[in-house]
Write a structure and sequence with these properties.
The chain contains nine helices and 23 strands. It is an alpha+beta fold. Strands 2, 3, 4, 5, 6, 7 and 8 form a seven-stranded antiparallel beta sheet that branches. Strands 15, 16, 17, 18, 19, 20 and 21 form a seven-stranded antiparallel beta sheet that branches. The chain has a six-stranded antiparallel beta sheet with strand order 11-12-1-14-23-22. The N terminus is likely disordered.
Length: about 475
């Protein structure tokens, strides 16, 4: 794959209305160098496919006179690209330069002179001092994905030397100058088209870009660009939308991303800055989908727990429950009443959630009798981590506050129930949340991309993922 991930990610999608991004991506010198290595392997393979058609000609060679010659069955035996560089032109684009390259090929020769003398044999051609320079443009295709092309290209061949073998080759080496020039021109005409093909061969890979990545049956995340790539002297910065949407319904949340800047780092090939906006847009989407709720029954509580979800247990704290609903199992319904909010501070990610917890007694006929409704304010710490190609998380409870919203069994003090509901959160709610968070959601990727040596740091208003990449 030509020029690797950095070129693919440079052009995630065409420019849309300018706004603050939810996600920023920085491609460093280390990533560009990896792209150069992959690109050279592809170009080298392309140059090995050079096909020089058979050709013939006539030349006057002293003292022989007119010589008719033909060259056939020519094929490449070796290509070397010892020097190459990829340079960023700030504010402009990308240039690729190759120098001191060489190509070796062989083929068959045949000559006729003095009208009756014929001879044949083989020959070797060594092309040295080959240089190639190309500029690469990045545009959008009809699907909104990037398409790349070689905008301009120049190729020059420093020297071409042919050596004949067999027959009276010592004689025919006298007129190699004429054939050198013909072969050099034939090669030179093919080099730029092949380089252009190598660049174009990236386009099928770019079509694998997850511009709109499905998360689950409720949500998808959009990684379209919100502004043009910023080409700097030693890196390329990309601004991506990084916003969750309900599948089939792209509704904007009642908040927008705050501006943030990536710190100057160059230890990894790729840096991804994920703002709090991106995660909070996920909370908005799942809240709209009505899935931020959980029904809790006794079978969800570990058998080792002394606390049971029945009217006997709660009757110890609220006697009227045991009197009015003796010997019944209970059910709790936890439901968000506000969109959970995540904040990033250095080394700390915190989620604030406002929920209601409604308790029911389960009647013998399975009908539910409401007992009380509590307001629950909870704060949890989130540990973010990268799992394969996804960003995942796990939360732990920091603190919670309970207040009585409504009672169907008369007034009672909430305080004695705090430990009970803290246990419910730790034993049931948070493990259920963590199961979902562990599934993760897709990071912006292209093709068969694998993350290596990944690190994640939480900073002010965003988290920073530093990673190397590898393509198979």
């Amino acid at each position: 794959m030509f020029l690797c991930c950095w070129l693919g990610l440079v052009a995630l999608i065409p420019t849309t209305l300018s706004t603050n991004p939810g996600v920023k991506v920085r491609l460093t010198e280390k990533g560009i160098e990896y792209g150069r290595q992959l690109g050279m392997a592809v170009i080298q393979q392309k140059l090995r496919s050079i096909k020089i058609p058979d050709f013939s000609g006539k030349e006057k060679v002293s003292p022989i006179g007119e010589v008719q010659y033909s060259l056939s069955n020519m094929h490449i035996v070796n290509v070397g690209l010892p020097k190459s560089s990829v340079d960023l032109v700030p504010g402009t684009g990308v240039t690729l330069s190759i120098g001191d390259a060489f190509i070796s090929l062989n083929g068959n020769w045949r000559v006729k002179y003095l009208r009756i003398i014929k001879d044949s044999g083989s020959f070797d051609l060594d092309v040295n001092g080959l240089s190639i320079a190309t500029t690469i443009s990045i545009k959008s295709d009809e699907t909104g994905r990037p398409a790349v092309s070689s905008d301009s290209c120049s190729a020059t061949v420093g020297s071409a030397k042919v050596k004949f073998h067999g027959g009276a080759s010592w004689l025919y080496n006298l007129f190699t100058t004429f054939i050198d020039k013909a072969l050099r021109n034939a090669l030179q005409k093919q080099i730029c088209p092949l380089v252009s093909d190598a660049v174009s061969d990236l386009n099928p890979q770019l079509k694998t870009l997850n511009v709109l990545a499905k998360v689950d049956k409720y949500a998808e995340i959009e990684y379209s660009m919100v502004s043009s790539p910023t080409v700097l002297k030693s890196s390329i910065d990309l601004s991506l939308k990084g916003e969750f949407y309900n599948i089939g319904k792209h509704q904007e949340p009642p908040f927008s991303p705050a501006a943030f800047n990536l710190p100057p780092q160059n230890n990894n090939m790729l840096y991804i800055g994920m703002s709090a906006f991106t995660v909070n847009s996920a909370a908005f989407v799942y809240n709209n989908a009505g899935v931020l709720s959980l029904s809790i029954t006794d079978d969800m509580i570990p058998k080792s727990s002394p606390f049971r979800l029945n009217t006997k247990t709660f009757g110890a704290f609220i006697p009227q429950i045991a009197k009015q609903f003796p010997g019944l199992m209970m059910k709790l319904l936890v439901k968000t009443v506000k969109i959970p909010t995540l904040t990033f501070e250095p080394n700390n990610a915190t989620v604030q959630a406002t929920t209601t917890m409604t308790a029911f007694a389960i009647q013998p006929n399975s009908t539910l009798s409401p007992l009380f409704v509590l307001n629950l304010e909870a704060s949890v710490s989130a540990r973010m981590f990268v799992s394969e190609m996804k960003l995942a998380a796990a939360v732990t409870l920091n603190k919670m506050d309970l207040t009585l919203a409504k009672s169907y069994v008369g007034d009672f003090q909430v305080g004695p129930l705090e430990n009970v509901f803290k246990g419910v959160l730790k034993l049931v709610v948070i493990p259920a949340v963590n199961v979902q968070l562990a599934k993760g959601y897709p990071l912006p990727t292209i093709g068969k991309m694998k993350l290596m040596n990944t690190q994640l740091d939480v900073l002010k208003d965003y988290m920073l993922i530093g990673t190397d990449v590898q393509f198979s």
